[in-house]
Specification:
71% helix, globular, 13 helices, mainly alpha
Length: 291
């Protein structure tokens, strides 16, 4: 999973070299939906979603439809490795949102983690970003915010629904929304084999297969342990960007990577139970996880 969700940034960078972000989102969502919707229909995972359609739309917007477009557009101006590292701040943002909304407690360790994580982002932006790139950085920041909000919607509003049904529906909705834009932006000539391969990998591996494997991982080790992949994703994105796309490995990236990952680990570790809460009550609480 760490590899599967560490490689999208590389293939997005390759794809947007020849096709538009809207066409890429449309193509990726169509491929993913065509593979997952039949499974969800066969398992009757779609019908339970109907009473929650408003929250399904909200989840689709913050987790799929908006982030995929923003990432694709941003990577036309900044490197895939920098994008992957900025997205690594998602756990810290999720932890901060949980604190703000009263979903968790704050202690000195988590404060230090949040500070380190955002200091790492500041190091990346301050040392490696030009003024012309600030718009793209803002787009990736919105993506990170969406990726942090998405799991909160799942946990608090959609937690009782079949996960596969939620994902399949989100992909189908995204495909429908982007169809008018993607179909009108088809290139006049067939894209290069590398772009076609990149789109296929994004749709089949990074979307359809990724969600199936992730559900299996959660079933095997539980949600909190499954989030360990988040700390490895940026290393994969960085290594592939430097090795295959010859993107620079700078001092800012080195410092930012260490600070963001370390901060995310500290910020998302659960605080010890309060003395006023019994161990039985603590074990009964739902476990929160960050993307």
């Amino acid at each position: 999973m760490a590899f599967i969700w560490g490689i999208p940034y590389l293939f997005i960078k390759i794809a947007v070299g020849e096709i538009t972000p809207a066409l890429l989102v449309f193509s990726r969502s169509v491929i993913g939906a065509s593979l997952l919707l039949p499974i969800a229909i066969g398992r009757k995972d779609l019908a339970p979603l109907l009473p929650y359609w408003k929250w399904i739309l909200a989840y689709t917007f913050v987790e799929v439809a908006a982030p995929w477009f923003l990432l694709s557009d941003a990577e036309r101006r900044i490197s895939s490795s920098l994008t992957g590292l900025l997205i690594a701040a998602v756990p810290s943002i999720g932890a901060l949102l949980a604190l703000v909304t009263g979903g968790d407690r704050l202690d000195s360790r988590r404060i230090a983690g949040l500070a380190l994580g955002f200091l790492g982002v500041a190091a990346l932006v301050g040392l490696d970003v030009h003024a012309d790139d600030l718009g793209a950085i803002g787009q990736v920041g919105l993506v990170a915010l969406g990726y942090a909000i998405g799991p909160m919607i799942i946990e608090r509003k959609l937690g009782t629904l079949p996960a596969l049904g939620v994902v399949a529906a989100s992909l189908g909705i995204t495909a429908l929304v982007y169809a008018p834009f993607g179909l009108t932006q088809l290139p006049l000539t067939l894209p290069s084999p590398s772009v076609i391969f990149a789109v296929a990998v994004l749709g089949v591996v990074c979307t359809a297969l990724a969600f199936l494997v992730f559900f299996a991982l959660i079933a095997e080790v539980g949600g909190p342990r499954a989030t360990v992949i988040t700390y490895v994703n940026p290393a994969v994105a960085l290594a592939l960007g430097v090795a295959l796309l010859h993107e620079p490995f700078t001092f800012g990236i080195a410092v930012g990577f260490v600070l963001i990952v370390l901060g995310s680990i500290l910020a998302t570790r659960r605080a010890p139970p309060s003395r006023s809460v019994s161990m039985t009550e603590e074990r009964a609480r739902p476990i929160r996880s960050s993307q």
